[in-house]
Prior knowledge:
Elements: H1 5-45, E1 61-62, E2 70-77, H2 83-94, E3 102-110, H3 116-129, E4 132-134, H4 145-156, E5 169-173, E6 178-179, H5 181-188, E7 196-199, E8 201-202, E9 213-214, E10 218-222, H6 223-231, H7 243-253, E11 259-262, E12 267-269, E13 287-289, H8 294-303
Amino acid sequence: MRYTPRSQGRKLIIPSFFFIIALCVLAFINEIRFGSLLSFGRCALSNVPMTNGSSETPLLSSSSSGGDEIRILVGILTLPDQYPRRHFLRMIYGTQAIPNGVKIDVKFVFCNLTKEDQKVLVALEIMRYDDIIILNCNENMNKGKTYTYFSSLPDLFNETDSPNPPYHYIMKADDDIYIRLENLVASLKPLPREDLYYGYVIPCQSMDPFVHYMSGMGYLVSWDIAVWLKDSEIPKKHLEGPEDKVFGDWMKEGRRGKNRFNAKWSMYNFPEPPTKCTHELWPDTIAVHLLKNQEKWIRTLNYFNVTSNLKPSKLYHIP
């Protein structure tokens, strides 16, 4: 039998038709499977937070929306030219663990800049760390800087979308004090959040927080007292003198600080040289004051074993 080109073409058309049908069916099945997998993937990833490698959460913050959240501002009063000290303290506080549900902001506080190099270097610090408050005052220790600090805060932190109050507690601290933030938080949790005056009672022999005042090494008040200082005429008439004693005078004259807490001997001066205000380093410490040189800082940091969480790595060898 002889085949013609036309008869051969007809025989090829039928298998080709079924082959095309088979391809369409296979493609349809694969499309269904892919769609199902894609939907499953979307579902599985819907609860995974997306990150871009950065975080807007402050370094010293572990906030939650719970009702027990504590917000603390620690203002370290220092001088504009103290660049090495600020960088050192950023390491000290930036490596401390913060309990869940707690927000602690550590800010460096000083008065107006007066030198051209400060305007550049401090601006760079702010751009990098955003942890500086520059008050509208002339630099001083005992002529109103503390008043300017506390009384400025209600206007500095008055954003409408911020919590109310923005901070439950505000601390004024020297730049030669080591504060153990976790212990500070633990001591504050049972305390009132209004009309509170907290610190190390002066004189050193006294344990009664209602007789005199709290040492300038580091004392803390509730937010409402900062609002009172802003509005009251009492501090404006008495700005000069030892800043911690003057602050105590304001509290006494204004009958403020009905809730007082003496943190002695969890707060104390470095043990050497020994005085009536010193104490040996011990585990229940909240703050150690008068760390005037690197040797005292290193002894204190070693005692509290602050580098215990250093992770092993091939990149360094620290015995």
